[in-house]
TrEMBL record:
Its main location: membrane. InterPro entries: ABC2_TM, Nod_factor_ABC_transporter. It is found in: Membrane. This is Putative ABC transporter permease protein. GO terms for molecular function: ABC-type transporter activity. It is a multi-pass membrane protein. It comes from Gordonia soli NBRC 108243. The chain crosses the membrane at residues 34-53, 59-82, 118-138, 144-165, 177-197, 238-261.
Length: 272
């Protein structure tokens, strides 16, 4: 198989997805803006938040949860969502997507490949952030499973949202505008924002995709959801599993909607 991704040619007969993902990663790494946005920004900003919060409140479970939440927001929006949106839109404009469909790779593999570089960087960033936060004395997570599930589900959902958004994005420059609704929707889900909203608006915000991710991270870190009152009982590791149902259902609904929207709007050619 010969695959072209952003000018790179990759030959790989047996594993087209691996070949495409490798080509996408090389192209990603050559873009210094995406590299900086995918490494320095998502790691640096949460760590600054952690240092400031730790100085004021000490290394508490809540500070750890807030730091992980900040990392998740930045990584999923800028490392995953925006980079996939930008790359897919650029590849379409260059005619690469259309050419790839003539090879051995399936449509699904072609759509998945642009999300691989961001996913790998998100994994590396997650490990780095966790090492710093917990290495500096933050209490160990109540249950690490919800945190891992939140990041994996978030990578999948925001990659699909990027594919859906690409259908209404004419070029890479326009992505700065078309990405705003998803970014605003995600930011509303931050625990710090939901906690100050009126009750009715907070209930709506609780059903946004990043709110579910935020609650999973908080459950794993502290044993409570992100906006639970201090008086709320802290769940143990087993109890956390029972509380994961609502946020997981929210993520599932959003993922199905994003997949349906992608199937309806995704374009392989600017003329199509």
């Amino acid at each position: 198989m010969t695959a072209h991704a952003g000018g790179a040619t990759v030959t790989h007969r047996r594993h087209p997805l691996r070949a495409l993902a490798t080509a996408e990663f090389r192209q990603f790494w050559r873009n210094k803006t995406l590299v900086a946005m995918g490494t320095l920004f998502p790691i640096g900003l949460p760590l600054v938040t952690f240092v400031i919060a730790r100085r004021d409140a000490g290394s508490t479970a809540t500070v750890a949860a807030t730091t992980l939440e900040m990392f998740a927001l930045v990584a999923l929006l800028f490392v995953q969502y925006y980079s996939v949106l930008s790359m897919v839109t650029t590849r379409r404009g260059e005619g690469v997507l259309k050419r790839l469909r003539t090879g051995e790779a399936t449509d699904r593999q072609i759509q998945i490949a642009p999300g691989v570089p961001g996913a790998l960087l998100t994994v590396v960033g997650s490990v780095a952030i966790a090492a710093v936060v917990y290495g500096l004395g933050a209490p160990a997570p109540v249950n690490a499973v919800p945190i891992v599930v939140a990041m994996v589900a978030g990578v999948v959902l925001f990659s699909v949202l990027a594919l859906a958004t690409s259908g209404i994005t004419r070029n890479a420059e326009a992505a700065q505008i078309t990405s705003l609704p998803v970014m605003m929707l995600a930011m509303v889900g931050l625990g710090s924002i939901r906690s100050v909203l009126p009750e009715q608006l907070s209930d709506i915000a609780d059903r946004t995709p990043f709110a579910a991710i935020s609650d999973l991270i908080a459950l794993g870190s502290t044993g409570r959801t992100a906006i639970a009152p201090e008086s709320t009982a802290v769940l143990d590791a087993a109890g956390v599993f029972g509380a994961m149902g609502a946020p997981l259902a929210t993520l599932a609904v959003w993922t199905v909607l994003a997949l349906a929207l992608t199937a309806r709007t995704f374009r392989w050619d600017d003329r199509g």
